[in-house]
Amino acid sequence: MSVMKRLSMIFKSKANKALDKMEDPRETLDYSYQRQLELLQKVRRGVADVATSRKRVELQVNQLEQQSTRLEDQGRKALAAGREDLAREALTRRGGLQTQIADLRLQHNNLQAEEEKLTTASHRLQAKVDSFRTKKETIKATYTAAEAQTRINEAFSGISEEMGDVGLAIQRAEDKTATMQARAGAIDELLASGALEDFTGKRDDIQAELDRMGAGSDVELELQRMRAELGQGTGPRDAIEPGQSQGYQQPPQQAPQAQPYRQPGEGA
User: Fold this and answer.
1) Is there a contact between 94 and 71 (Cβ–Cβ < 8 Å)?
2) HSE-CB of 10 using CA atoms within 13 angstroms
């Protein structure tokens, strides 16, 4: 296929697609109906013209028949008056009129047949035009309803797309909300367990003092254990008497030191 043929085909296809997009079937149907009405009007005018010609021929036939009758009367009168020559002339003219009358009658018959044919065609065309008009209105109504339904469906389609976007936005908001709730719960658990310190909240002084005492007791226990290991004291568990708290350790009792000898009367 040559380049020109391909370009021509592409142009025609593009033009046909553009025309299909621009074409309104209702307008096309109305235009076709208008053309059929014009054709029907032409047929009716043709019937009227043929009928007029037939009527004109009828008038001519009547006139010639009247002339033929008058010539026949004149021939009789001339023959009765002894004027055979005039009677012969009158009959000769009458014969010429009869020939014209015969031709006119043949033409009249042809015109009458044509008139009947055109009248029948006019009636058939009228029936077709009426049927087309009914079908046209039905198609137009159906097309209008389909067009309205299409617009409604397109509107619903747009609404569905928007609702889909709204649904996605709601889903994202719910996901973010769930994430924030989980994060808040995790922070609460960490604060409650002490893994995180709440710098914004109020501190409990009694709880802080208790925490410090507990920490000090642990240090004392560790020191006693170390002294015991070094031979400087008893172990932490040996120093704890039954019934005493582990937070407080009784210091080991030392042996009494020897007092120096004093003379009587010396001061202490």
Assistant:
1) yes
2) 7
Cβ(252)–Cβ(231) under 8 Å? no
Q: Under a CB-based contact definition with an 8 Å cutoff, are residues 241 and 250 in contact?
A: yes
Closest CA to 126 of 209, 234, 8, 44: 44
Model pLDDT for residues 132-158, shown as the tens digit of each residue: 999 989 988 888 888 888 888 777 776
Determine the Cα–Cα distance for residues 46 and 123; give it in Å rounded to an integer: 13
Residue type, 13: S
Banded pLDDT at 197 (limits 50, 70, 90): low
pTM here is: 0.47
Q: Tell me the C-alpha distance between 17 and 9, whole Å.
A: 12
* DSSP 8-state symbol, 231: T
- The answer to whether 72 and 32 are in contact (CB under 8 A) is no
Residue 201 has, within 13 A of its CA and on its CB side, a CA count of: 9
The span from the CA of 58 to the CA of 263, in Å, is 195
Q: What is the pLDDT of residues 249-265, one digit of tens each?
A: 545 544 444 444 454 44
C-alpha angle with apex 119: 118 to 121, nearest 5 degrees?
Answer: 60
Q: What is the C-alpha separation between 23 and 31, in angstroms, rounded?
A: 12
Instruction: Give residues with Cβ within 8 angstroms of 112, minimum separation 6.
Output: 54
pLDDT in tens, 29-41: 888 889 999 999 9
* Whole-number Å distance between alpha carbons of 230 and 55: 157
